[in-house]
Write a structure and sequence with these properties.
Layout lengths: L2 H24 L5 H25 L22 H10 L7 H38 L9 H22 L4 H29 L12 H27 L22 H4 L17 H29 L6 H23 L4 H30 L5
Helix pairs in contact: 1-2, 1-4, 2-4, 2-6, 2-11, 4-5, 5-6, 6-7, 6-11, 7-9, 7-11, 9-10, 10-11
Amino acid sequence: MLHTTLAQMAITALIVALLPLSMVWISKDVDKYRKLVWISVFLTFDLIVFGAFTRLTDSGLGCPDWPGCYGLANPFLAHEEIRAAEALMPTGPVTMVKAWIEMIHRYLAMGIGILIMAMMAVSWYRWKKGRDSGAGRAGYEPGYPTALFLFVCLQGAFGAWTVTLKLQPVIVTMHLLLGMGLLAMLAWLGGRQDQALRPMAAVGTPRTGLPGLRRLAVASGLVLLVQLFLGGWVSTNYATLACTEFPLCGGKLVPEMDFEHGFHLWRELGKTAAGHYLPFSALTAVHWVHRNFALVVVLVLGWTVARAWRFAPLRRIARGIAIVLVLQALTGVATIYLNFPLTIAVLHNAGAAALVLLLTMLNYRAKFLADAPAPH
């Protein structure tokens, strides 16, 4: 790839990042760093949703190379190559619309990367300035933003491998999980900045039950992580319509399933590890496990919500988790009954991201309340 192409892409990514950075700069917030963190949370949520749209519209290979499009900075410049590929295979993965969807997704990801770099630079600057002056520097410890930067680099690598390995299911699924992980890490940092600016009052909060709630909240996060993997595995293997009825599948509670091929991780899209076409029973197994594990998610997160409701500072987040959990169940069933409409499928992915965000906030606040000194 030419250096001019890389320079053009870098300039475009900077332009994408300039709008949120300008919003932070002109805002009247007392803590602009906190504003930057929460804008990054918002845009990362949007990126996950748009990533789902990219995947569900089969646009992941809209530009079949990385980081550019046919070695160029955008589909405008690669117009001839895209049109030639589209003429050769009109229903294939490369079209002008799909190329733009894919490149918009990449540029949004690059923009978020720049925001995280800015976050890291500000934290190091303020931390060093506070250390040199002897003033307090709480809330600007640079270790966490630096870890975020390394994490987003790893996420970018998986984004590249998603394209170069031609949508290999395990790579695409890991790309999704890392995106959710980035959202959780940013939300945790946002909670830390909220606490630094406006400490959450722990006075009057009952102490009994908090350690148990913390453990339950962590367990809920692990259960949700498993379900995110299963959901990503369904999506990346195109197994959403392997079962077209609910609660039965193929007219049975337990249909014929091939777990060995369905859950063999390292293989090409639509193929077994031996290179044969993936049997339908393998897709059924993938779908059926995700569907039934959803019941575990509802039970564990529902119990967590019920326990969190006892604590006034956690009640609002608990209510949010309960609402999103119900909507997730509804959109999941609607996806099956309505024959996989794009809008509902994207909303189902958005609901998963919302659960990650809310559960992270619940974990942070439960940790703070449990660690706060007991009132005398």
